[in-house]
Amino acid sequence: MSMSNIFLPFSGGSGSERFLRNRGRLRHAVASHHVGKLRRAFEAFKRGEWKPLCNHRISNYCISLTSWRPRLPDLPLVLLALLQQTLRPKEIVVWLSEADLHNLGTLVQEHFEEFCIRFQTCTSDIGPHNKWLPMIEAGQRDPFVICDDDTIYPSEWFESLVAEDRLDAYVGCKCHRIVMGAEGLIAPYSAWEKQIENDGEPSHWIFVTGAGGAVVHPNRISPGFLDRTEVAQKCPKADDVWLKAAHLAAGIPCYKTRYSFPCLEFPGTDQSGLAMTNVEGGGNDDQIRNLSHYFSMISPKLRGNTS
User: How much is the pTM?
Assistant: First the structure.
């Protein structure tokens, strides 16, 4: 079975990103098209008729992500996309609860184990923070990439992200710009400037989102931000908010890469889970208020300083 190109090169620069930015029938159709190709590839993979075409160039960076029961049917498709990057990750670590690892099944694990994919169990469930915190707790000291389990990543995504990693900034592909509201306070998340373009400079005003992927440097995260109790009490459902606060506390700005791509979600995921509670439901604003001490570092005293 010939499936040498199971992806369309849908990154296409800022034009295609803007074209597909808004949710709608076209966006859904494009996402469904890519998911269909991935699903057919996985079925062929299970039958032994096809194998992922992994690049021989291997990065020093690994990828860490998490998933949970409603997303398990699509997890193999996400892994196929991550395996067929133009630069191969050193390894891919998938963090699951014990129950979800059991529900995933040994067959899926066996199919992927030869491709340096490790399925790890979490000691306790900390939601979206499972994608980064257990990695550091397990002793990871080198930088690693985090990503979401509901986004379709184009083949050049990983190479482009790690190529733009910086010593002076927290780097991500999909970023928003924090906006000031009344009385020098941070405006509600819904009013922020979404999916900004690269302007060449790191800034405390830039907010890195999980959907586009980001590069985590463990040595930048202070011990207080590794406290599971603090995570659960103050920011249980927004790892990107927590990591932003961690970098603010360390005085490290964020950087939007030159590379952009339309963050196409697996159909149905944009109307469920954290997308609804954090964005539409105002959950991000609640969690930002819980971390106002850190976010106040850019409001209002840095209003005239974007660096």
Answer: 0.90
